[in-house]
Amino acid sequence: MEKIKIISLYGFLGLPADWDLIRSYLMVSPLAHQFEWWSVDYMNTPGLDTECDFTAWAKNFNNSVQQKFAVGPRILLGYSLGGRLALHALKRNPELYDQAIFISTNPGLQSEKDKEERAKTDQRWSEQFLKTPWAELMSTWNAQAVFKDSLSEPLRLEAAYDREKLARALVEWSLARQEDFQEFILQRGSQILWACGEKDIKFASQAMELQRSSSQLRAEIFPRASHRVLFDQPHDLAQKIISFLIS
Description:
It is a single chain. This protein is of the alpha/beta class. The protein is built from 10 helices and 6 strands; from the N terminus they run E-H-E-H-E-H-E-H-H-H-H-E-H-E-H-H. The chain has a 6-stranded parallel sheet with strand order 2-1-3-4-5-6, sandwiched between helices. Helix 3 (about 80-90) links the parallel strand 3 and strand 4 (about 100-105). Helix 1 packs across helix 10 (about 235-245) and helix 2 (about 55-70) crosses helix 3. The longest helix is centred in the middle third of the chain and has 20 residues, at about 110-130.
C-alpha cells in the first residue's frame, strides 16, 4: 500500500514548524506510519518564492510535487496564504491531488472595488514590513480583527525572515491579484475539506455559504478558534483531517 503524501503550505509569516503539532497528532492516529509529510518552505525555495507570480508558482510547485512524489495518493494542505497558493496549484492540475484541505483560506474577491481596496491595503502593509521596527510591526499585525481572540499567538522573531521577501509576498500574492475560485471549489467539492474558526466571522460565513452551495463539500467550523485554527485548536483540527482522509 502506497503511503499518503501530505504536502503542507504555511501561511504568511509562517514557518515549516507551524505544522509540527498537527503532524504529531497524526503520528498517534490510525494513519501512523501510513503517511509521508512534506512541509514546503516555499518562501525560501527558488522557483517557489516571491519572485514568482501565482501562475508561475503553481506550475513550479506542481512540478516539484511530481518529482518528489511520483505516485500518490497526494494530499494538498494549505493554511491562509498557503491555502490561496494551494488553490492555484490545484486548479492548474486537479488530477495531481487526491484530496485538498484548506484552512482559513480566502476563495477570492468578486468585485473590482474590493480588489482595488485590497491592493491598497496590501501595499501599505508591504511598506510597513520594509521599514517599521519589528516589535511594533508584530504588535500592529496581530491587532488585526482577523486575529481577534486568538488562543495561541505564535512567536515570530525577525531573524527568521527576509523582510524584502515578506514585503514582496504581500504585493505579488495579494488577494487583489488572485482569481475568484468559488465556482472551482464547488466543482471539486467532494475532494475538499474547508476549515476555519468560528471567531473568524468573515471566513466562517464564507465556509457556510460554500457548504450551502455544495452538498459534497465538507466544511468544518472550529469552536473557540479564530483565523489561527492550527494554533488555536491543533488537536481538533488534526482529528478532522484524519477523519477526512480515512472516510
